[in-house]
């Protein structure tokens, strides 16, 4: 299957899954905030994908590989499964909270703030992908692709800017969807990102030449001046 076909199939499957979880939990398709979030996520994701396809097709091909790979640490395989389950449960909770049972009442202006933050996060995601051709979806050293340390662009500010972008996108999504419970539970997803950051750094320091020196130069992992 070509990379283009893989991208299209992945987008269709992901969209169908998100709709089933969110709107199934909500009990209705008449949910403007839900469709607005879908438009933000797949619109932003589509723009980023087109940029990668034009600028770095090798990276896009790498991103389309299986999330379970032979040279991937076992802990990362377990992490990806756990985060996938948690993400699905989170979407279900938001649908139940914001629409079906209406446990949350969130002011509309917060949805606007959330939408702006999601857009900012996608801008950062695009910058990161265009800067780092080795940004595989799994933790591994890509020896066959000449893996090296990237220290320019966003990587000159924090060592894991993609996770930083996700740290903005996840709680912002709860704001767009109008769910206080979703916002609270997003802390679990963020904790997962923090844990993977720590574990991934151990792999990089141990196996990627020059990473330890890079970590000394760029002090912060996710949040400038904080951590």
Distinctive features:
227 residues; Four Helix Bundle (Hemerythrin (Met), subunit A); 0% strand
The ordered string of helix (H) and strand (E) elements is HHHHHHHH
Number of domains: 1
Helical stretch tally = 8
Stretches with pLDDT under 50, minimum 5 residues: none
State the distance separating the first and last CA atoms.
Answer: 41 Å
Helix vs. strand class: mainly alpha
Helix fraction? 55-70%
CATH architecture: Up-down Bundle
CATH topology descriptor: Four Helix Bundle (Hemerythrin (Met), subunit A)
Q: Count the strands?
A: 0
How many strands, which pairing sense, and closed or not: the largest β-sheet?
none
Provide the CATH top-level class: Mainly Alpha
C-alpha Rg (nearest Å):
18 Å
Mean pLDDT: 97
Estimate the strand proportion: under 5%
Shape: globular
Protein name: Isoprenylcysteine carboxyl methyltransferase
Main location: membrane
GO biological process, one term: methylation
Keywords: Membrane, Methyltransferase, Transferase, Transmembrane, Transmembrane helix
What does this structure look like?
There is one protein chain. This protein is mostly helical. It has a single domain, classed as Up-down Bundle (Four Helix Bundle (Hemerythrin (Met), subunit A)), CATH 1.20.120.1630. The chain is built from 8 helices and no strands. The chain has helices at residues 3-26, 32-55, 57-63, 74-100, 108-131, 161-177, 180-207, 211-217. It is globular and about 50 Å long.
């Amino acid at each position: 299957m070509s990379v283009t076909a893989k991208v299209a199939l992945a987008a269709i499957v992901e969209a169908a899954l998100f709709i089933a979880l969110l709107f199934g939990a909500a009990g209705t398709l008449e949910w403007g905030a839900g469709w607005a979030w879908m438009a933000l996520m797949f619109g932003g994701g589509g723009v980023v994908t087109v940029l990668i396809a034009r600028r770095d097709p090798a990276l896009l091909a790498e991103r389309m590989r299986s999330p379970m790979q032979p040279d991937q640490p076992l802990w990362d395989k377990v992490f990806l499964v756990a985060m996938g389950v948690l993400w699905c449960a989170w979407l279900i909770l938001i649908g139940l909270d914001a629409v079906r049972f209406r446990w949350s009442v969130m002011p509309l202006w917060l949805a606007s703030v959330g939408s702006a933050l999601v857009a900012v996060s996608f801008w950062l995601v695009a910058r990161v992908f265009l800067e780092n051709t080795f940004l595989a979806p799994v933790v591994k050293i890509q020896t066959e692709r000449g893996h090296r340390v990237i220290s320019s662009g966003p990587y000159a500010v924090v060592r894991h800017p993609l996770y930083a972008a996700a740290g903005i996108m996840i709680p912002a999504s709860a704001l767009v969807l109008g769910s206080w419970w979703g916002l609270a539970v997003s802390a679990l997803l963020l904790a997962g990102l923090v844990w993977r950051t720590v574990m991934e750094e151990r792999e990089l320091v141990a196996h990627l030449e020059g990473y330890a020196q890079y970590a000394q130069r760029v002090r912060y992992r996710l949040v400038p001046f904080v951590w």
